Amino acid sequence: MYDTAGSTSRSLLLKGALFSIFTVLLYLIAQRDYLVFHSFAELFSIVIACGIFMLAWNSRAFYDNNYLLFIGITYLFVAFFDTLHTLAYRGTGIFTSFDHNNLAPQLWLVARYLESIALLTAPLFFRRRLQITGVFLLAGAVSVLALWSIFWARNFPDCFISGLGLTPFKCTSEYLIVLILAAALALLYREKAHFEPNVLRLLTLSISCTIITELFFTIYTDLYGVFNFVGHIFKILSFGFMYKAIIETALRQPYSLLFRELKQSEETLRQKEESLLLAQRLAHMGSWEWNLHDNSMWWSDEMYALFDYDKQQTTACLERIFERVHPDDMPAVQQATAAYLQEKQPLKFSHRIIQRDGSVHHLQVEFNRPRRDQRGTALLAVGIVHDITDQVQAAKMREDIELITHHDLKTPLNPVIGIPEILLMDANLTPEQTELIQMIKTCGYRILNIIDSSLSLYKMEQGTYTLTTTSCNLLQLIHEIARGSEQQLTRKQLKLTCLIKGAPAGPDDLFMVPCEELLCYTMLSNLISNAVEASPPGADITVSCEQDALWSSITIHNQGAVPVEIRASFFDRYVTHGKQKGTGLGTYSALLAARTHHGDISMTTSEEGGTFSLRCACRTTLKQHSPPRSIPCNPVTRISSLSVPVRPDWEPPFSSPARHPVFRS
């Protein structure tokens, strides 16, 4: 096996040996002519700094790497001050009116401050937008100020004094630069996710060598001394690592630096595409695109699986879809497709297909809004296909189980319905006894209808429920609900008041609405029961009935506020709060019942309490103080303060098992 670790070690040893030889040669040059060595060391860093700027600047249109661009711009100014530092070094004889022992260290400090602050600040631009003009202006302003202070005003603090050596200002500045570089190193590692490991390692070595350089430049006493020489050697190393981290990496492995974010985006996109394909496969859902210009199509892998085609041997097109559509569903599918092409609006429908093995599958097809060009012309239709065979089969099984359950539940109800019929034949019953037995009988038939209608909720959800209306007095239903809630009303000392057009309902008032009586009873029972449960003890509950030319409305107000946690989802399925046995289906089923009657329910709440507003889009016959002519009314019976007529001889329209048409499917 190839020894990768051993090969890497030998490579490092070889590079270390070559650099040692190179360092010895530089030392010999410095011993003979230090100015030549110094010029070489500085020009090496200047060339690399300018190279970083040219690379970052000229490739900025092809990548989104603010870190590299910021480093490139600031290193241009670093190269400028390093150039001045080289020209001002002792022995060059260029700036003759200045103290060369002091001028070169002053320019050195400005360059190192710029470099260290640039390395500290650059990682911040991974999360911030880079203002290129602002960076140039700021760096330019700092440079002009430094040049003015050094060359014109000559008030820049001294850094080196002949005979004394480095000044406290110079040493303190070098230590401050070391701290800035250490912070830059820490920040670099905090943002290490933005770097390839090799680039991060090289940047770390570059900054570390710069720190060592600055430390050596706090202890030298001679501009040509050994500590100055060692400091420049580490500066060469620092810029050499920077060269390998940025320039070499950008040229040899551009995706590791310049286009790293693009590479990461492509990798992320690939992973998301794989996740999407996996999700489609698990959900039995395929996606497609249909070019409306040339009639070509694109299918996802799951589309081929859903329609039982081999991807390698099948061209995606509309004809292949029609080949699998069930013959009985073909007219509806063609009609839906034609409607989409004409209206260009979102569309959803279901149909069956027959696969090659003869099995029948149910599919749900969804057309999304087509994509258009600038002129508004539809170009591309997109959508999904979902295999709902399991759901259809589950719904069929649910219906079968419901039929069996209905049969088993009806048997215990026979005595509940039959015995009151026998008891009512007794002529010696008091009016109160007759009323109570009649209520048992009515409740028995109502439970029977509820059992028969347990599938109605599902049908209302699917929009397949058939509404059968009769003329119904909603005041009578409210009275029955109040009688059923009498125990709770009494226990909590609640007062339930029914109003018609703002006035208390009288014993002879009617609120006739064409509706399904049992459906309305269930809807009002859920809403009133909710109001009773939410009301604090001793509170008032008000049920107000109103009507106009278009709407019949009932408003139920109680003094209990709806909890904040469920206000936004109050009418959603399974939403409940503070009820140990609550199912969260009461208000949800009430909303479905209202919408089945072409109406709606809304809820408002405040510190004063909660209010349900029910509206049904049907004409209402509302009469006040006008007794029914066909059925005489008994004297008013009061429950709390609810005043509605009580009629012991009232018979529900579903008074026998053979006549309960309400909730007919």
TrEMBL record:
It catalyses: ATP + protein L-histidine = ADP + protein N-phospho-L-histidine. GO terms for molecular function: phosphorelay sensor kinase activity. Residues 255-282 form a coiled coil. It holds the Pfam family PAS_3. Keywords: Coiled coil, Kinase, Membrane, Phosphoprotein, Transferase, Transmembrane, Transmembrane helix. Residues 347-400 form the PAC domain. This is histidine kinase. It comes from Trichlorobacter lovleyi (strain ATCC BAA-1151 / DSM 17278 / SZ) (Geobacter lovleyi). The lineage of its organism: Bacteria, Pseudomonadati, Thermodesulfobacteriota, Desulfuromonadia, Geobacterales.
